[in-house]
Design goal:
This protein is of the alpha/beta class and 372 residues long. The chain contains twelve helices and 16 strands. The protein is globular and about 65 Å long. The two termini are 26 Å apart. The structure holds pyridoxal-5'-phosphate (PLP).
Length: 372
Amino acid sequence: MARTSLIRFVDLAAQHEEIRDELQAAVGKVIDSGLFVLGPQVEAFEREFAGYCGVAYGVGTNSGTSALHLALLAAGIGPGDEVVTVSLTFWATVAAILYTGATPVLVDVDPATCNLDPLAFERAITKKTKAVIAVHLYGRCADMDAIADVARKHRLVIVEDAAQAIGSTYNGRSAGSLGDIACFSFYPAKNLGAIGEGGMVATNNRAYADRVRILRDHGSRHKYSHDILGYNYRLEAIQGAALRVKLKRLAAWNEARRELAAEYRRLVKGVALLAKEKHGDENHHIFPVLSAQRDALRQHLSDRGIETGVHYPVPVHLQPAFSLLELERLSLPHTERICNQVLSLPMHPHLTMADIAQVAESIRAFRPSTDL
Ligand SMILES: *Cc1c(COP(=O)(O)O)cnc(C)c1O
């Protein structure tokens, strides 16, 4: 088959093309101002972002990982505590628990949603459990009503890892407003990406917001006065300014993703799709499919100029750095099967319907080998 143009997994150059002039003007203004760390651009972005998520407070951080770390610290999590979460996530979810000195308790996902199984969550609770991190994987909200029922019964703090879920909704509410405190990432490939690194803590709890604001700036409310041990997790002004430009486009970009995802659903055959999220809108950060011949399919698509991703090839509990912890050896069958079978198709707002048709057509042309 003739190789047509490359279909990219994400395409930040195309995104930049759309907003180049506005982005460069915004960045130029920051350079001229000489105010590079926190400051008015970050404060304005925090307000606009909190408004977008429907929460009272947003506190910018220098990554999604630092947002998770500070959210846990603000909630009082530390050594001796257990925090329940999933193993089917990006490593940072669990690293943040370890940074606090608490113990991560990893449980399996519901295979229908790829998100935290509320029953597995409840079974994992002990006297030491203090919090749960609900990850909204692929931009699909975890089942927050069921998770909240369990968490409230056991008086646990609910942290949302909404790094992938900006703009997703659950029963009419936005990701980031569904628990006690939430974390977002502005890693460039996320739906709302910085021109570098960035993150945000979102919450309706004033005490949590206040604590995170101090912790991100060396435990300081006033320059050179350090009330508690904190970190340098400050968001840069250039990121605040760039993210303000992109936040204005986010709703349109997420809508474009939804239309592309609907076209995938219509055209893709021969692999398993996840059921549409029944509680609300997905932001389609990732469009995953499942295939028992994932690696061969991935190669087949790559040969046809189609980039794909795998989220994630190795679950957290099977990572070398996790085995060093010498925790109980876990078996999480749904998580492990998904990691072996999942393939993320190209998904970004600058794809065309023709691109989607080409991906679907290439998947249909895949002939799984039978000599296994
Ligand atoms: C991206 C991501 C993070 C970490 O964010 P960074 O900004 O890269 O530190 C955490 N959790 C999940 C689920 C993510 O996808």
